[in-house]
Amino acid sequence: MKALIAGLTASLLFAGGAFAQDGPVNTNCPVKGKPAKSNITTEHDGKQVAFCCFLCKRKFEKNPETYAVNIKGGTSKASGDKAVVGQRAPNFTLKDTDGEEVSLSDFAGKMVVLQWINKDCPVCRRVMEKGLTAKMLGDLKGLDENFVWLAIDTTHYMKPADTAAYLKKHGMSGKGLMDPSGSVGRIYGAKTTPHLYVIDTKGVLRYSGAINDDRRGR
User: Where is the Thioredoxin domain (predicted)?
Assistant: First the structure.
């Protein structure tokens, strides 16, 4: 837990400035990750950047440094970049347990904690049943009451309703996101549950690791 809290504290105290990334004309909206429309564009660093809607265009123009790193070609819902501590966290879009699309970029300006879950994993169940996740969320609230917690389920056979029921059973109010293909999990290098990632208010990944110092989750 000490390592996690240290990472959380660093995410607040040492949030570095956002940086922009030059790139070719994109096919995915850098704000939502959805297919971009060629008739909704703006200029950035001498290049035309396309968006899925005018709302995303306005968001980008208001704060381009937050989204410029997501300017990429292709149709993937997740950036091809690998997550690296100390660098900007790759954007992604997943469906939540209600079937609504959620992008990491939706929470620009907020501290975000990603937690990989699997209701069939004994360690994941243990940290829930013993209240370790609830304690972590309480500690987080003490550091930043506006933080966002996202639970990501990469279990290919899991149904959204099962994931939603699992979170509800343990009193977790954060969004449950479904990653059945494992694409986001691979980008972030999430190989175990409950693997945690802390992203600071500037979108920089500050922590990657366990929920506490006990590998058994006790």
Answer: 83-218
